[in-house]
Amino acid sequence: MFKKIRDLLFRPRPASAAKVDVSPEAIAAPGSDAPTGIPVASNDRAPAPANADRGSTERGNTPAKRRQTPVVTLAVDASVAGLTAVLRHRIDSLLADGMDADARLLLENIAAAPTAAIRQLPAAAQRALALTQRAEPPIAELTVVFEEDPTLAQALLTQANSSMYGAGRSVLSVRDALQRLGVNAVRNVLMSHTVSALLCRPGGKYAQMVDDVWQHMVRTAPIARRIASAFNADAEEAFGLGLLHDVGKLVIFDRLTTLRVELRRELVIPPADLRVILRMLHEPLGGLAVHNWNLGDAAAAAVASHHRDPVPKVRDALSEILHVAEAADISSIRGEDFDLASTWDRAVLAGSAIRVERALMAA
Hints:
The chain is mainly alpha-helical.
């Protein structure tokens, strides 16, 4: 039987704590279904939420009701200039450390034109996304955009008639589907459909790695949606960013594909070098991709800081959600109990640990 986080929250916290491996290279084997009932590891210590009332618990009294920490975004410099500076600094560090020839070629190619490495979304998707960013998205204009692109319309209707949104009757028109889903869910349909269409085909040993990354993102998104309320965040927004959180890795593989075509040969990058490149560059590249697709600074900040290393100085609920959701998925695929307490301490999280644990264990 699992020891509940509620029981752990009010124990004295030891001086040291084990860390969980939630490194970005720890991508598990592909699978399209989100894990349910994720086992949460039993632990002898508590996570230390930033908004916990320590005084009352140390005296053994009933803890005071914890207040929701206000959601503050832009925990990092999520501007294009800021993310580009971070990216180039990290590339310089990697080049200085020494890399094999093809790894250096890849790094220099990305550094020469960072945003050029990011493919644009199809025109119809760009127009629809722009419309969803308005304060009052125009249903009539969105309907026209979706009806002009049969693949987008099919994706929209499929989602509207899914078990999550179905309301007892089938939706057959684009307009009705838009009204049923709402703006955030429509934006998620756009992102899921278009990002999957942008998946590159680098060939050889890299092809499986691309599929692993995409399947990991697909699994992480519903976990992010499930735990969003524990961080006082919008569930559909969390789902959308879950679909995008590792998109920077897809950008790197896309550059590998481009170089392979241009050079007419396979690029040979030692696995150790590739792991370091993916770990160091995927966050700023992911943030830049979010900018290229006009999803805003808040989304870019969450994607660019979801590993929380270093921990952002300002609270970012979406970054926290992505961190927990990714770690939970990796633990599930590895067949390990998810050590929520250790993850909470390591990442300095400020949501509700009890509600996260309940959501993760719910079938």
